[in-house]
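Hi team,

As requested, here is the filled-out complex form for the zinc ion run. I kept the field names the same as last time so the parser does not choke. Let me know if anything looks off before we queue the next batch.

— J.
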Amino acid sequence: MRWPLPRLCGVLLVGAGLVAAGAGMSGQTSSSGWKLVVLGVAQDGGMPHLRCTEPPCSEVRAGHRPAEKVSSIGLINRDSSAAYLFDATPDFREQVHALTGGRVPDGIFLTHAHIGHYTGLLYLGKESIAAREAPVYATRRMADYLSANGPWSLLVKDRHIVLNVIEPDRPTVLAGGVRVTAMTVPHREEFTDTVGYLIEGPRRKALFIPDIDQWDRWDRSIRELADRVDLALLDGTFGSPQDAGARDMSQIPHPLISTTRERLKGTRAALWFIHVNHRNTERDRAADLAREGMEFEM
Ligand SMILES: [Zn+2]
Ligand SMILES: [Zn+2]
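And here is what came back:
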């Protein structure tokens, strides 16, 4: 079986991954050293998904296609090796290995407290590597939640992680001048608020919004934002209303891929969908679903 490979002007195929080459997206020839790497594409529960007996889950179990790690991206400078991770997923170990070779990233930016987005923090604790003061960036509510509730509170108390509270809409300036700005988005708030990120590299800007209830419930225009960036990695949970299966979609709202495509038709940003549900019917036919290993010069 073959999977459709994403097509993007200037994309080079490198091994199993993709490199959106420096010359490809804007005509520049030299590199900034920074690249954004897709480390996982699946929704929180991963793919294959528990209790899923149909394709694509059954194809993974039969060894006919690769499993998909949970949605996450990394930012790495190939000259200085500075590295930042966006979301700490249940696949945290493999994703950190892929990003840094196993070294704890210089910063971990969290979006919210759902299983696919922060539970990987546990690998920084005593039972694993007992990290020393790994910098974690989170909103006030997310930071308070981690500080107040076990097992996360032990990571804080024993200083395996250090919480850096980020104010939405205020950029955090990282090594090398990269700017990261959190934007609050509407999403089920059982424990914390939720943010997406604007990542501004020396050459290019990217949006990372893996989870949002609906674009219309947001006080910002995704269209205006996408028109200001080069790359948009957006919530691709569902392709059609049937993709939720027996689950009530009103309880797990997400913009449909087709809705987002329509809204962003002709935008300046290269659009890629991430955070893809295991039942998403677009998986094997869409050319704009992100793939693990894709790289974009920043
Ligand atoms: Zn999620
Ligand atoms: Zn969520």
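Two things worth flagging: The chain has one domain: 30-293. The pocket of zinc ion (ligand 1) is lined by residues 43-44, 114, 116-117, 210-211, 275 (CB under 6 Å).

Thanks,
J.
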